[in-house]
Structure formats: C-alpha cells, structure tokens
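Job type: complex structure
Entries:
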Amino acid sequence: MRCGAGIDARQVDELAINIDPIQAGGRLTADAMKAVIAYGDGYSVCDNCRKPNRLDYITKPPIAEFHRDLALWLNMDSARVVPGARRGFQAVAHTYVNKGDPVLVTSLSHYTEFLAVEDAGGIAREIPADEHHRITADATAAKIEEVKREFGRGPVLAFIDHVDYQYGNINDLKSIANVAHQYDIPVLCNGAYTVGIMPVDGKDLGADFVVGSGHKSMAAPAPSGVLAATAERAAEVFRTTTIEGDVTKRRFGIKEPEMMGCTLMGVTLVGMMASFPQVKERVKHFDRELANNRIVIQALRSIDGTIVLSEYPRKHTLTRIDTTASFDTVAKAHKKRGFFLSAALAEKGVVGIIPGATRVWKFNTYGMTTVQAEYLAQVFVGIAVEHGLKIS
Amino acid sequence: MRCGAGIDARQVDELAINIDPIQAGGRLTADAMKAVIAYGDGYSVCDNCRKPNRLDYITKPPIAEFHRDLALWLNMDSARVVPGARRGFQAVAHTYVNKGDPVLVTSLSHYTEFLAVEDAGGIAREIPADEHHRITADATAAKIEEVKREFGRGPVLAFIDHVDYQYGNINDLKSIANVAHQYDIPVLCNGAYTVGIMPVDGKDLGADFVVGSGHKSMAAPAPSGVLAATAERAAEVFRTTTIEGDVTKRRFGIKEPEMMGCTLMGVTLVGMMASFPQVKERVKHFDRELANNRIVIQALRSIDGTIVLSEYPRKHTLTRIDTTASFDTVAKAHKKRGFFLSAALAEKGVVGIIPGATRVWKFNTYGMTTVQAEYLAQVFVGIAVEHGLKIS
C-alpha cells in the first residue's frame, strides 16, 4: 500500500507487537486517530482564534481548557504545548543560561538536553550515576560543589531525568530537587518517559519545570510535548514580548518569545487533546504495565546468561538488557550473525529491537495486553530453546 | 460529529469555500491525508533510523531524498525541515545575532520574525515600506545607513518577506539582497507565502536562507516548515554539536544544535513529503490562481467604495481590502452590525473572513477552482446588491 510520493503505508503496530523503546507510549488512541483525520489541515485549530490571539486562549476546540487541565494534572501552575520535549528544554535553557554558564545534566541525560545547553552557550556538567545507574541527591550535592570550585559559582539550571532513557530507572527527583534548591538552582524534570505513562506530581517532586513528550509518552502525533512550570518560573520562561517596531511602533501583545508565539496549530495539538482523557486514565494503571513487564523479564532472566541491566525489580517498562552471554553466543555461529534475533522475532510477529543487536539492547513492554506479554515471553524462550540456550 | 475529548470534527473545507488568509495554502492533499493516517504515531518515521541517526539520513521512508529534493527545488544547497517557519527564523537569528545587535526586519514583517530577533537578544529595525506597501532596495540602503549611524555598525542579519502577510505584495528580494550583501549582511527570505505557492529560486533571489511554511503554503500538517541555506551559510546554521559530557566523555555525532537534533518525526514530515509532488507541480500554475483571484477582485471593485489596498493588479492571491465605504456603511445600520457580512457569506457557503470585519480585511483565493471563484464573485456582488450598495 502506498501513500504517494514513494511512501509506503506504515503498518508496524497494526501487524506486530512493537517493543521499540521509544515508540510504545506514542501510539495514537482511536480518538487521536479520528482527530488527526479531522484536523490534518494547517492552522485548523485557528478557525475561532479571537483576541488576544494566542493558541492557549482558543476555546473552540477547547484548547484553553486543555492547557488548564494539563497544568492541573501535572500539579504545576502553568502549561504550554511545545513541538517536542526538546523545545521545552530549549526554552528553559535559553531563559536561564548565558554564555559560559555551567548547567547540570546527568551521565544518563538525553542528547537533546545537551543540545539545549549547547545552544544557549552553556557548559554541561554531568552528575555521575551510581553503580545502580541512578542519580542520587548526594551525587548532585557533590557535583554542585565541584562546579562551584571549577567555575567559582554554582550551576544556573539542572536537567534531571525523572526516568532515564538508557536504563529506564527512576531517579529520586524529590531529594535531588531539594539539594538543588538549597543552592537556588531551578530544576527541570525531564518527564519524557513518565508524563503520560505514570503519575507525575510536579510540586511533590519539587520541580520548577516538568517537560513531557507527546509523541513519546502521551499518545500524540509528532512533534508535540508539554512544558509546565511553577507560577514563579512561568513568569520567567513564559514572559511576554517587549520588542517594538521602531518605525511602526508595533508591539505584539501577549505572545511569548520562548514559545515563538503559537506552537502547535493542528493535528499535533488536537491529537494530544483527543488522547488526553485516556492518557489521564492510563497513568493510574501503571501497575498493570509493570505486571506485564514482569512476565517478559522473568522469561528473559530464565535464559541462562541474560542480565537485566536496569534496576531490578523493574519500576518502569523501558528495560535495558545484556544478552552477550546468551543470544550473542548464538549470533557468533549463526549465518545471519546478530540479525538472527531480530529476524526470529519478526517471524513471530515481534518488532522494534535494533536489527543486529544481540549484546546490549533495550525494549519497552508499555501498552501491551497480558496475553501479548505472555506470548512475547514465550517467543523469547522459544527462540532461546531453538538455538540450544539453557533455560533455568 | 465528535472526535472525543469535547472536540468537534472540523469540516470547514469540506462544507464551504474557505477564504481564510492563512489557511488556503495549507489544506492537505489527498496523498497527505493518507500519509497522516498511516504515520499518525509518534516516531513512526524512525523504524529504519540507522547510523548516523539523524532524520535527514533516513532512507525508508525516503526522507533523505526529500531533503535533497527540497534544496534542489528551492535552488539552495541544503535544506532541513523545521516545526514551522518561525523555528527557521529562530535558528538563523540564534546563529548570527548576539545581545544588542541590530537586525533588519521590515515595517510589514510578521510577529514571529520580531520574536526571533527578541529571543536572540537583538534589536529590530524596520525598513519602512513605500507608499505602495512594498519594501525597496533604496529604503533598505537608507535603513542600513541609519542603523550604522545609530549603532556604530551595520545590522548582522536581514529578514525580508518575499511576500508580506499584510498586503500580499511581492518585494523585489533580488535588489534588496544585493544591497544587503554590499554590507555583508546575510539575508533570510521569508517565503511563508511563496514557498509551495509560486516558484522560488533562492540563488536567483540572492537569499542566504529561504524559509517556507509547511502548514501555511505546502499542504502539510502543522507545525512544519523548511529552512534552506547556501553552502556557506549551511555550515554556520547547520553546524554540528561540539558539546561533551565531562564525566562520560559522550559526544553527539552529527546532531545539529540549532535544529535541536531531529525535528519532525512523524505525521508532519510525512504529510509534507506526500504533498510535495503536487506542491512542486502547483507552483508552476500560479497564473491560474491569479486568474481566479482577478475574477473575485473585479467583482469586489465593482462594488462602489471598495478599495483594494494591496498592489494592483494583484501578483498574489492574498489580498487586503478596504470596504469602509461599502460593506461598513451597511454594518452601521444592520441589526447584526459588522457581523452581517460574515453571516451573509456563511449563508452562501463562504467562510474564513474575521467575523465582524467590514472595514479592512484580508482574504485568500488560493486553491479554488474557476467555478468557485465565479461563485464567490457573485456572492460578494449579491450581498452588496441585497443591501442597497451601488455596483459600477
């Protein structure tokens, strides 16, 4: 099937169980799919844009209400939609970071956090993860002191991942934020793997900012995301424009420079809104997701030599695994080499791991049914048995 | 019909002739609509992302080829997709503008160009339009000299609208760029109303950058757009990351900080790609669009007191009109006041002008058939006659 312009219709999630680490939380709901069809056109949410002419003031469709709900849901004071979590990072970095300023990230931070620091002219300093691949409050305090010695002043901002993208481990954001606040450092909670997946209470976490990803974890089209802030920080990052035309004396009302005015004008925003009721509901049932994850993890751990690199027991469905002493031993002798695993999985209707990977790889069980989890568990064990690996 | 979450299905372009000034060029093609359905999911274009892991290197779907085609089509050396034209402005401003630097815009510039200047810390200086609401090379030279007197140095960047958003007038970008280049000022051609609407040859225009809007003029979902650059400027605005993790010594390959890494990961990009063959074709037939526009303009001008504020004869379908001495005289006595006009149009199946506007307003005839243009002409004259206005 073709969409025109040499583009094959994508039918990944229709035809297979998709365990891609970054795709699991972004699959559209049926409501989002309907919204996507109705709001495909550019500027389709602008039909009823009236003064003061800003996206988050539009009431039909109920965009203003959605913004209020988003902030409330994250227990923050203000929220804006952004074209991806990274654009939230960019807006915050650009507000607080000047050339040469040190900024805290972590040794598990996503590259987009580094780019946000770089783009603002800042210098990234990583809080090292501990031996369990988690960022601790103690390590944060030590790093702040180290930065103070190096720069003669503390970091101006801290990007802390609520759940990191490499191991899917949960960081104790509350304790970390507590330490950062003792040094007056604003804390951005990167919730790309939590907002829309599990409950996030920004105030309880002590976050100055909560950033979420629509296409990663809120069942929304790309690029979409949310940037929420406390009232104090909202006044800074969502400050309104002050520039004036020298000839026309034009000013630009309540547009926000860090948002570049309006942000998501059609399919991305309406898709996010349409999925929101189900997203709000699903975060309450993250325990079911963890139960499904356990079924798969148990099966993988039963294959001799397989090591779960993520914290264990799992508290998130994104998991990093080391199969160097199991599937990779098969790969060494297999005519397809490392590709044997992804090929064997595909044959059984499972997709989403990097083709060729048999040593360290990631997968995400988010959104599957228990029947699918049991099937996936069986598939992993079946492939292992078929290739002569031992099961304990 | 409902999409869920309190969102009514939008059926504006299905049920009416839409003359909204900003929506006309963004309506999806049927191919884009198919693509939107197949690529609704977040990260749906990332299935076959392989090293070096950057959006514009993906070959399935043919994203790499699309990027090459885009650059070629605009006769520029490099192109990237961005989440809206404004994000292209932001990337360029952020590359060239430091705090306190003067930046040229025009007295007809869009607010997003001002926000890009403000966000980069620059100071906007407007080239005044002439009495025909056009920006000239002479006015550009005069403004540059004025800026040099005021700041002791020239502007570091010039944002010039190929066609401005207020009057839909075409500026002589070639002559303007020629002047700017004599002062070594890079020129960004804002093609939000031309790229995807009429032929744009970046090198011929002398542009260092060409920015286009997907959702405004390329029949693509929002937010989407293109930033194209000459080879010299591409090396600057698309420079790759140099930041490094101090603990992990991680570096981030060929990701581009001004793009924040990858930009459009799903429905927005694939929609843009799916429409592209038709967009490339339609720009060759802009004369047909102008012929349709003429039919409507002639009808409006036949209504006594109506003045076309845009340059005349029209060279673009976006048109600004003054009906203070025609429709507004009706509004003064009508029980619906200014709303009589939009209501009367809606009754005849025409939507898209600001409700209540009867003095100065804008409309866009882009994309209509000749039959629709003739019908629209008839509707305007019919409403005028019905309300006792004279027709000449």
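Summary: Residues 111 and 177 of chain B are 21 Å apart (CA to CA). Chain B has a mean pLDDT of 96.
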